[in-house]
Request: fold
Amino acid sequence: MIYFDTSYLVRLYYQDAGADAVRALAATDHVASAAHGQAEMIAAFHRKLREGAVRPAAYAALLGQVQAHIEAGAFRWLSQDAEVFSRIRQVYQRLPRSVFLRAADAMHLATAAESGFSIVYSNDAHLLAAAQHFGIQGKNVIGQTPVPHQNSAHLQNE
Reply:
């Protein structure tokens, strides 16, 4: 199983730069993400509608496709429990002031770390830079050729 943040989830459905590389990586394993990633993904699609990057019919089709995949179990949505929020508090307590870490990114990183993932895939430079503070590695395959991984390479303990 591999962990995607929202920047990668969006590329599974929308042809942003790097979408082909993200889709190729997704084809190598099952995809997991924090449960709040669903809301972030839908919000990103709505932003594209608001900004005129997609038309209303395409927006409706995107939402329908996402809903169908969610109902089919295409993703493993990871919940945030007390351990996740404890991890977030601990990281922020010792986080250097120079590190830019948004709350939603902290939720992704803590969720992944507490769920046993050792790698988070993202195209978000701030999230990637902060990953080490959660004891995990951030990777970006955009502009690279993804290498298929075995499930155990992504989970420390499942």
About this structure: Residues 2-153 form a domain with the Rossmann fold fold (CATH 3.40.50.1010). Residues 145-158 have pLDDT under 50 and may be disordered. The radius of gyration is 15 Å. Helices lie at 6-11, 19-26, 36-50, 56-71, 82-94, 103-114, 125-130, 151-154.
